[in-house]
TrEMBL record:
The modification N6-(pyridoxal phosphate)lysine is found at K113. PROSITE patterns: TRP_SYNTHASE_BETA. Its cofactor is pyridoxal 5'-phosphate. It comes from Amycolatopsis acidicola. This is Tryptophan synthase beta chain. Its EC number is 4.2.1.20. Residues 77-415 form the Tryptophan synthase beta chain-like PALP domain.
Length: 452
């Protein structure tokens, strides 16, 4: 098989179950708490927001969850996704390292997000829900949920962070083509949005504010539920199809990764790729290093506090134990919109605390340089988010060039940039800046973490 570029699976090899890493951890992650009582939230607290099937998946200790046939049917539109060996990039870098990437840009909206949008829409429709509300930053998640909602006959209402709503009109058109209704956030539609606008009429918004708006709207409508595109356990669970496929593809390649690297916004594409490999590592069969990469402008794992905090700005969600920069933190408007969330998945945060993964923060110009280098050798223009993972790959590949190490690197190329090209324009024109987060700004943001 030498010289091979793509490792492809047949539709018959599509995984039939999702993997729940909680079953293999020495201790489970700390539970979400009710902000009023300080007690763990129960199913009744979550029922206004999520269907029963997803609440059950959120807390399950079962190692595997079967993927419904209706979901597999939709997955087959683009799955299994390809695993590539980046031979041309290796050559361009002059590295002895072997670099592989699992490409999720083949999905209908160009990212990994439909892997969870589809089952979320399916379970809601199966329980008689008529309407889904959600937030979106760059628009990847909103497009995925709009597509999935159309597939199962649900209405979809999306609050899009104002900065992206203004800068990225094509995502809006995509969501509307799938039938979704869009609001810029902060909006006049909700009390949370109006409160922000009263104080900051020119607010460019944040994911935290948009979540408050979508949650508020769903909670007030018995026919509606809320859908989250990252962070929660059931989202990371659904994304494990990525890693399960990649394991089979590495068998075809007769190779084994030494380093697995992914970008982390809320942690779902990274967890989805890494968790099945972590299962194999915990069983002693392989020993890869697993590395999360975040932007220097929003470094929740590397500089955040591991504490109970709200998932949204207004404080409407349960308290989640996670690495957080404070729920009032509004990151600089960097181009990787999907990495601008103040917190990290509680499950991934817990796994980080257990010492099972590492993390590094990289400034955006180095990331776009890696993205351009990748595009010029592999032909795919990466979404701004996975350029962070590629920057870490390039660092490691160049280190291998010095040492002569034939390290095997696997990365999640979780989306393409076809609707984010203005970010590349900013980089190519030399207008891009690195938004390092000053200690003083961080300290002020961390003050919004509730005292525990
Ligand atoms: C949403 C998104 C991210 C960030 O979310 P994760 O849950 O950390 O994966 C990263 N990349 C792309 C392309 C996205 O759409």
């Amino acid at each position: 098989m030498t010289g091979r570029t793509k490792y492809l699976l047949d539709e018959a090899d599509l995984p039939t179950r999702w993997y729940n890493v909680v079953a293999d951890l020495a201790e489970p992650p700390p539970p979400p708490l009710h902000p009023g009582t300080g007690e763990p939230v129960g199913p009744d607290d979550l029922a206004p927001l999520f269907p029963q099937a997803l609440i059950a998946q959120e807390v399950t200790a079962d190692r595997y969850v079967d993927i419904p046939e209706e979901v597999l049917d939709v997955y087959r539109l683009w799955r299994p996704s390809p695993l590539y060996r980046a031979r041309r990039l290796e050559k361009a870098l002059g590295t002895p390292a072997r670099i592989y990437y699992k490409y999720e840009g083949v999905s209908p909206v160009g990212s990994h997000k439909p892997n969870t949008a589809v089952p979320q829409a399916f379970y809601n429709a199966a329980e008689g829900v008529r309407r889904l509300t959600t937030e979106t930053g760059a628009g990847q998640w909103g497009s995925a949920l709009a597509f999935a909602s159309a597939t199962f006959g649900l209405e979809c209402e999306v609050w899009q962070v104002r900065a992206s709503y203004d800068q990225k009109p094509y995502r809006k058109i995509m969501m509307e083509t799938f039938g979704a209704k869009l609001h810029p956030s902060p909006s006049e539609e909700t009390a949370s949005g109006r409160a922000v606008l009263a104080e900051h009429p020119d607010s460019t918004g944040s994911l935290g504010i948009a979540i408050s708006e979508a949650v508020e709207k769903a909670a007030a409508d018995p026919d509606a539920r809320y859908a989250l595109g990252s962070v929660l356990n059931h989202v990371l669970l659904h994304q494990t199809v990525i890693g399960e496929e990649a394991l089979k593809q590495f068998e075809l390649a007769e190779d084994t990764p030494d380093l697995i690297v992914g970008c982390t916004g809320g942690g779902s594409n990274f967890g989805g790729l890494a968790f099945p490999f972590l299962r194999e590592k915990l069983a002693g069969r392989i020993a890869p290093e697993i590395l999360a990469v975040e932007p220097s402008a929003c470094p929740s794992l590397t500089r955040g506090k591991y504490a109970y905090d709200f998932g949204d700005t207004a404080g409407l969600t349960p308290l989640l134990k996670m690495h957080t920069l404070g729920h009032e933190f509004i990151p600089d408007p960097i181009h990787a919109g999907g990495l601008r969330y103040h917190g990290m998945s509680p499950l991934l945060s817990h796994i980080y605390e257990l010492g099972l993964i590492g993390a590094v923060a990289i400034p955006q110009q180095e990331c776009f340089a890696a993205g351009v280098r990748f595009a010029r050798s592999e032909g795919i223009i990466p979404a701004p988010e996975p350029t962070h993972a590629l920057a870490a790959c390039v660092r490691e590949a160049l280190r291998c060039k010095e040492t002569g190490e034939e390290k095997v690197i696997l990365t999640a190329l979780c989306g393409h940039a076809h609707l984010d090209l203005p970010a590349y324009a900013a980089y190519l024109s030399g207008d891009m800046v690195d938004n390092e987060l000053p200690d003083s700004v961080l300290a002020e943001a961390l003050a919004s973490v509730p005292a525990g």
